[in-house]
Amino acid sequence: MKRAIIAAVTTLTLAGVLMAATPALAKAESTADAKKWALKWSRQVKKNRRHALAHAQALRQRLPVKLKRSVTQPAATSAARLSKEDWKAYGRACRAKARALAKYVRATWRTIRNPRGSSVSRWLPLLRHEGWPAATHAMCLRVITRESGGNPSLIGSGGYYGLFQMASSFSHGRYDLRNPVVNVRLARQLYSRRGWQPWASTAY
After folding, report:
1. Would you give the DSSP letter of residue 83?
2. Domain limits, the chain
3. Edge-to-edge, what's the strand order for the sheet holding 160-161?
4. What's the rounded Cα separation, in Å, for the pair 191 and 159?
5. What is the 3-state secondary structure (H, E, C) of 149-191?
6. Looking at residue 197, what DSSP letter applies?
7. pLDDT over threshold 90, residue 47
8. Which CATH class name applies to 120-195?
9. pLDDT average, residue stretch 111-137
């Protein structure tokens, strides 16, 4: 449980986290060095694309066509092996694609975690992102409407916070339940164990 809560606060949805472990352009002294560097960026592209697709699905958007296109890995011919420059060119192309995907992830994450508007339905992308089953979305919106009116900063009487009015005792005071991402994620964990019972007065 503790590990799950920490994950809620240090969410991996930030593209900056994805990019943090990605290698800088090293001095490729050999073809093997250049290949290793290029393949690391190639793997980063795959990670960032999966992340971008998850955000697009949460927002019910299509991933931009230019981000869908893959970078073609160079292939050796029967006449010659791949050179250091071939791998470096491939690595640069992968790096550019990984950064473009990361930019999309950052932009869409801002929309998901802090949506504009006043309608409670604006929180649907966050519900999808945090793994609430589609069958629960209508009830989630009803609970959020009755508990907080969609105001993530609401502090209710008795020490209840945020969208789902989570009890402060649930996080032992260590986490900000007014953070909508934390609130929705912890509410999902509570629902998985106890169903709608914690919100019995507002869910029905």
Report:
1. P
2. 2-113, 120-195
3. 155-156, 160-161, 166-167
4. 19
5. CCCCCCEECCCEECCCCEEHHHCCCCCCCCCHHHHHHHHHHHH
6. G
7. yes
8. mainly alpha
9. 97
